[in-house]
């Protein structure tokens, strides 16, 4: 059995993550791999309830951090770890880097506390009991906040995060850049300002280069592939 692969998609709101996840899942499935397609916050019935609170109810940054890690723990326990143990490719729309970018850099919450929560929430669930689960690869969609905002203005009504100002998203973008610099082996930066066909090419090239996807993978996604299919 091929070993499981845990791949996360990160970037500010509107960077283009959701548009590419379903087509990548289809490309892997066409090559005979089982794929688990999921998202954070969310991915389990409990974590989806926490997601609804996070996206719509007012709360402070510590409460946000505790809720995202509670949702993550349940998601790891019920979905991600079992899928990896089966040998699936797990494609997850956001994971812990989002917490460091949004609650850490965006809200200004203490990143040492986030690191502590990361360790306790992500350890003790894998086959190897001491492993702190981290993605094998993080595809980071890097896009200027004003371009992302222009894309979103045409696309959907904003949630509690998407309604924040551009200064917040500049901080979040810097948070992602810092996280990527601290784990360069794990991160692949995708230039999300490119037209979608080129974004797709860059994404698949990263995966082919690692030997995880065979060459000639799938079609370029249509612009309208919704995140709502997750
Ligand atoms: N490379 C691209 N160029 C132009 N528009 C894009 C591109 N990628 C995605 N979009 C559009 O931008 C909007 C936000 O994309 P989406 O995939 O939902 O972003 P995210 O999941 O990162 O918030 C959608 O309307 C989508 O069709
Ligand atoms: C995973 C995660 C997401 N978020 C935020 C980022 C997003 O604005 C929001 C929901 O993410 P997302 O699923 O990308 O929203 P959408 O489906 O509308 O594209 O949650 C955090 O603040 N911290 C986290 O740890």
UniProtKB/TrEMBL annotation:
The keyword Glycosyltransferase does not apply. PANTHER family: THYMIDYLATE KINASE, UMP-CMP KINASE 2, MITOCHONDRIAL. Its EC number is 2.7.4.9. This is Thymidylate kinase. GO terms for cellular component: cytosol. ATP binds at residues 11-18. InterPro entries: P-loop_NTPase, Thymidylate_kin-like_dom, Thymidylate_kinase. Belongs to the thymidylate kinase family. The gene is tmk. Phosphorylation of dTMP to form dTDP in both de novo and salvage pathways of dTTP synthesis. GO terms for molecular function: ATP binding; dTMP kinase activity. GO terms for biological process: dTDP biosynthetic process; dTTP biosynthetic process; dUDP biosynthetic process. Transmembrane segments: none annotated. The keyword Kinase applies. Residues 9-201 form the Thymidylate kinase-like domain. It catalyses: dTMP + ATP = dTDP + ADP. It holds the Pfam family Thymidylate_kin. The lineage of its organism: Bacteria, Pseudomonadati, Pseudomonadota, Betaproteobacteria, Burkholderiales. Keywords: ATP-binding, Kinase, Nucleotide biosynthesis, Nucleotide-binding, Transferase. CDD domains: TMPK. It comes from Simplicispira metamorpha. NCBIfam families: DTMP_kinase (TIGR00041). HAMAP family: Thymidylate_kinase.
């Amino acid at each position: 059995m091929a070993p499981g692969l845990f791949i996360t998609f990160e970037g500010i709101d509107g960077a283009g993550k959701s548009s590419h996840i379903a087509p990548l899942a289809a490309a892997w499935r066409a090559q005979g791999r089982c794929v688990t397609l999921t998202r954070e916050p969310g991915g389990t019935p409990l974590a989806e309830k926490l997601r609804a609170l996070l996206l719509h109810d007012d709360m402070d940054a510590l409460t946000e951090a505790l809720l995202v890690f509670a949702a993550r723990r349940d998601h790891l326990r019920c979905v991600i770890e079992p899928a990896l143990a089966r040998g699936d490719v797990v494609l997850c729309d956001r994971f812990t880097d989002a917490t460091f970018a949004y609650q850490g850099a965006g809200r200004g919450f203490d990143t040492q506390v986030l690191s502590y929560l990361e360790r306790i929430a992500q350890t003790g669930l894998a086959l190897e009991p001491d492993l702190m689960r981290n993605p094998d690869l993080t595809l980071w969609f890097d896009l200027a906040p004003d371009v992302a905002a222009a894309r979103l203005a045409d696309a959907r009504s904003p949630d509690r995060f998407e309604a924040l100002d551009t200064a917040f998203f500049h901080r979040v973008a810097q948070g992602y850049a810092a996280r990527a610099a601290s784990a360069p082996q794990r991160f692949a930066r995708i230039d999300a300002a490119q037209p979608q066909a080129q974004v797709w090419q860059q994404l698949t090239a990263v995966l082919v280069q690692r030997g995880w996807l065979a060459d000639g993978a799938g079609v370029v996604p249509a612009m309208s592939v919704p995140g709502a299919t997750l």
